[in-house]
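Appendix B, record 7
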Amino acid sequence: MKIDRATTWKAKLPALTRARWLIRCGHMFSADELARLREGLWPRDLDDRWTVWLDGHAMRCWRSWTGTCIYETHVAVGEDGTGGAGVLDVLDDPATYRRAGTGAVELERFEGILSLMWRREDDRDALAGVTVIGG
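Structure tokens (predicted):
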């Protein structure tokens, strides 16, 4: 029986409920990027530190090891399928997350997490170009 990683993770990831630090971000997403965000970034092993998912209009990023929501934003989707996020909510709980000292640096961290989405191979393409010998 194949384990549905997305379903398993979705059941245990809460929204950002603690104190928040709001940062204006003005981030734009293409329709393809929104499609990838809706599919989500789901950890495959302990080396995968982040979980990212766009659920409706709420995009959240969690630390996979703790299940703590660090980033949350509302994504407004246009008629053309593109979207934008105007404000990024960052967990503001020093006991749980050591946030950056400036909004600019925190936005760089957020962009770094998003870059994991764009670089990560899709599970079904992980063996693309590989020939399996034997059997």
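Remarks on this record: Strands lie at 20-29, 50-55, 58-63, 68-74, 76-77, 83-91. The helical segments are 5-10, 31-39, 103-119.
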